[in-house]
Amino acid sequence: MLAALVAALVALVSSPALADESKPPALPADLVAGEVSFQGSGGLTLHGSVVSQASPKPGRPGRPGVVLVHGAGTGTPREKLLGEAVAFARQGMSVLIYDKRSEGYSLFTRSYSQLADDALGAVGALRSQPGVDPAKVGIWGLSEGGWVAPIAASRSQDIAFTIVVGANALYPLRQQTWAVAAGLRKAGVAGSLVDQAEPKLYRVIADGGMFPEPYFDPEPVIASVRQPVLGIWGVHDLLTPPRETPPIFAAALAKGGNQKYTFRYFADADHAAHRTPDSGVTRLPELAPGYAELVGSWVGEVTAGRAPAAQVTGPAPVQAEDSIGVPPAEWWESAWTQLAALVLFLVAFGGYPVVAVIRRVRRQGGPPPVKVARAVSAGGLAVVFGAFSYLFYLVMTGGKLAVPGPLVGDRPAIWLALQAFTVVTVVCTVLTALRRGRASARGERVRIGLLVTGGAVLVPWALYWGLLLP
């Protein structure tokens, strides 16, 4: 049932898989693109474009090259990174952008190792391009690519340098729960929805196998990277904890003996180091001022054999709340336990009106309905399925663009309504239990008893999800 609810929402937001090939990107007159194909993980053929200056600067017979690795998204087209490709190409590099795989990658299934092998295939293709110095080819990864690029770099000595943008040194489940909670808080939300319900829903999703690579640990991978590293973060990153990640990243590099890194924060920049006019909510097409120039000069120094000493520069990042650990679910909060509770609620709360309808269709007589029992049935169904529908909606639209609906103070009106329904349902359950003895027929007592059981189980369930907490 959980999977069905998620799948229904995914169908509304998922992108269709791309065709095997797409048209070459449209470029400014000073740049040219050459089409390439290469083998990714498992022999999958991937397609891309190499963007370079139409008239390379004299004295550069062998240009540096860089492969751009996408952030999260199924079948993301190469054009998504065209802005970066254009900017970096104008710095004298050949830049390979490629269509991300759809095969073996979805909202529920993905492998960072597989994506790293795809990136290594792209590196091999770029190293063989005319005019590119194969000893000066590196890799760049955005967001999810910040997990992928270090894996690729740790596997190949053919990679000359590594650049990460908006990268995470946290495991994916922790990063995602922080991002959605940060988005809710930015929207003005506080209380049990943020503190209880949101992280617990992610634990259930991960326990049910619907969150890929939830506990992937990037630190050992980062520690195994030997190439020079350029790390870039926007001050207003709302998807990666910008204050927490760089120190962890630096410590992991140092643990592996790598002090050849440069970390830079950019003001008025978002998760992708693009300009943002409203503290990270809106992403403008333009890169942060100085970002492309930094990449160009840094790559030039590194590929000339002048590796940087460890340094961190730029304005302090904005991060209101720390991320919190998201441990694996205990048995009593597992996906299977939650599914069993949903089945119980469906039978207990849904059975009462179903029996009444059957009796009416068959024109069978029966005892007069107990009004409070009706309230338990209706309220219980509204609470359980309303809560999960609302939470899944927040998950699917979460992160920096969280839209919790109208607020009453710092609580979403929808969440307050669900909490009110929960209180009413619990009170009516007590009243129904007190009146159960008035039912004369044995079948009616069983029917009401099942309803009361559902209401009783609802109490700890609602406490767990924060529906009975402020």
UniProtKB/TrEMBL annotation:
<feature type="signal peptide">
    <location>
        <begin position="1"/>
        <end position="19"/>
    </location>
</feature>
<dbReference type="GO" id="GO:0006508">
    <property type="term" value="P:proteolysis"/>
</dbReference>
<dbReference type="InterPro" id="IPR029058">
    <property type="entry name" value="AB_hydrolase_fold"/>
</dbReference>
<feature type="transmembrane region" description="Helical">
    <location>
        <begin position="413"/>
        <end position="434"/>
    </location>
</feature>
<dbReference type="Pfam" id="PF00326">
    <property type="entry name" value="Peptidase_S9"/>
</dbReference>
<feature type="transmembrane region" description="Helical">
    <location>
        <begin position="446"/>
        <end position="467"/>
    </location>
</feature>
<dbReference type="GO" id="GO:0052689">
    <property type="term" value="F:carboxylic ester hydrolase activity"/>
</dbReference>
<keyword id="KW-1133">Transmembrane helix</keyword>
<feature type="transmembrane region" description="Helical">
    <location>
        <begin position="335"/>
        <end position="355"/>
    </location>
</feature>
<keyword id="KW-0732">Signal</keyword>
<protein>
    <submittedName>
        <fullName>Alpha/beta hydrolase</fullName>
    </submittedName>
</protein>
<dbReference type="InterPro" id="IPR001375">
    <property type="entry name" value="Peptidase_S9_cat"/>
</dbReference>
<keyword id="KW-0378">Hydrolase</keyword>
<dbReference type="InterPro" id="IPR053145">
    <property type="entry name" value="AB_hydrolase_Est10"/>
</dbReference>
<feature type="domain" description="Peptidase S9 prolyl oligopeptidase catalytic">
    <location>
        <begin position="115"/>
        <end position="274"/>
    </location>
</feature>
<keyword id="KW-0472">Membrane</keyword>
<feature type="transmembrane region" description="Helical">
    <location>
        <begin position="375"/>
        <end position="393"/>
    </location>
</feature>
<dbReference type="GO" id="GO:0004252">
    <property type="term" value="F:serine-type endopeptidase activity"/>
</dbReference>
<keyword id="KW-0812">Transmembrane</keyword>
<dbReference type="InterPro" id="IPR002471">
    <property type="entry name" value="Pept_S9_AS"/>
</dbReference>
